[in-house]
Structures are given as C-alpha cells and as structure tokens.
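re: ur question from yesterday

yeah so i grabbed the chain u mentioned. its 312 aa long if i counted rite. heres the sequnce exactly as i have it in my notes:
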Amino acid sequence: MTADALLPELTAQAARAAHREATGCPCEAGVLAVRPDATVVRHAGAVAKAHAPGTDPERLARLLTTAAGLPGVLLPPLAPRPLPLHDRLVTLWPYGTPVDPDDPDAAPWEAAATLLARLHRSPAPPGLAPMRGPAKAAQAVARLRAAAPGHPATPPVLRAWATLPAWARAEEPMPGPGRLCHGDLHLGQLVRHPAPDGPWLLIDVDDLGTGVPAWDLGRPAAWFACGLLPPEAWTRFLGAYRAAGGPAVPAAGDPWAALDTAARALTVQTAALAVAKATEAGRPVDEVERTVVDACDRMSRIPAQLAGGPRK
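ran it thru and got these structure tokens back, copy pasting raw so excuse formatting
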C-alpha cells in the first residue's frame, strides 16, 4: 500500500488515540515522516507509526513490552500491541518534542549518553532478538552497490567495509552475551515527553535488541573521528556516559579500543547511504558526505587511522 493511500487511515488512528474517537477537531496534526521503512503522523498528543511491510508482529509486540517496561528511558507506547492496517502494522505513541536541528549548541548530548548508559545496564527481556545495527549497515552497503556501482566514491567505501570483522557486517553473530541496545542511536531518536519540555526519552524501538553496546556510541564516535562533531561535544557525551556507569567503554582511559569497530562501521554506513542517495538524486556528494567518504579511504589504507581523534 502506498504512503498516500495509507495516510488518511493512519491519521484517523492517530486521532482516535488522541481523543478515543475520531473527530473533526482543529488539533495540531501533520505528517512527521514518510520513508520506505515507516510512515509517521501526528494528531494532537498522539503519534501513529506504520511500520515496514513484512514486520514481524510478535517481535514488534515484544519491543513494545520492552519500551513499556523501561519508563524514564524509552518513550512508552500508548497501546501494548501493534494494530493491523492493510499490509502494515501500526504502533501508537505519545507525541514528544524533538531535538531542534537548527540549534546544534542545544543538542542534548549528555541526556543521550545518560539514557544509553541506563539502557545498556537494563536487563534484556528473555527472547529478545539481536539489535539490528549491523544488519542496517549491511543494508546501506547493499544499497550503495545497487545504486552507485560506478561512482568513484564507491570503491573506498567498499574497501573500508571489507576491513570490518564479520559480526559488524552482519555475516556472523555479534560477540555475546550482549546487552540491551538501541541499535540506531542519533539525535533524531530523542524527544521531550511530556511535550514541550519534559525529560528527554529515547524513541524508535524498531532496531532495539541485544548486542554490542559500543554500537550505540558508534555514530557520535564516528562523527568526532571524522571531524564532524566538535571535541567538546564528544567529551560531554563520553563523560556523561561514563558518569552514568555505561558498560560499553572502560570507566577511564582511552575508549577507542572498545569503540573502533563500531565507529568504523557507522562511518561506512553513513558514507554508503550518502553516496547512494546522492546518486539516486542525480547530484554530486556534498562537503560533509565527502568527509565520510575520505574517512573510508583512510580506513581502507590504514584501518586504525580513524580511531583516536578527528581527521581533517
């Protein structure tokens, strides 16, 4: 079912969640996201998310239960199980205020790190599947191969991918026993709830599962290593994670032995998606995208060079 055909019924579900019945009210409403893997709409204080076709209903229900069982860490769902809507599953959530992308100085790095530490220290529910971080990285590389086989940026990205251990390429199980992980941490995965100025909470449980907790630190670590995240922001993030007892890195000293694989994997994922999207849009890669491609080129020649600090 196309997103355009899905939107009216999905919006009605959000309205029912907000008011317990569909109304013609003039509440604040709108479409928050339309992507191949999700369509998200808001009505007043409720959000309805249609997940990708083929989503496993039992896995998704287990993730909702996990979110409901971690108040103060994950945004709690409004309904305990997903609802069917044609070929999609829908989950219902309270609306939260997202991070303002136009105010980078106010980015809640400490809050994100503290929430991650609390998540990583929480017991994983029995039967929870592995987190999907490495699988998403592999999907990004597959998209690059399909979209841009002849692009000059593709070879260094693929060479960097080949330097990663098999588990980081989703070719083998992650080293275990593993901890509860978010699987796709970035600043878009935080909201304030209750809106507009409640405490920060993590959202988006689709990739949640057990695995290597360093993966959740991999994206900010990669940005720092590539020179895209200021050192002071990285220091605040890492310090807050350690202060909250996060188990992904040692409590003191150099964290890069623990973070190197995740940081390199997230660099490759970011570069692969950047080149694929640029090619699909018929445009050249921009300056930021070129930065992560250049980092992949360094990684492919000297794999350890990404670790330890930003590169120009």
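noticed a couple things. The beta strands are 29-35, 38-43, 46-51, 83-85, 88-94, 97-98, 179-181, 190-192, 200-202, 209-211. also The CA atoms of residues 9 and 303 lie 49 Å apart.
anyway ttyl
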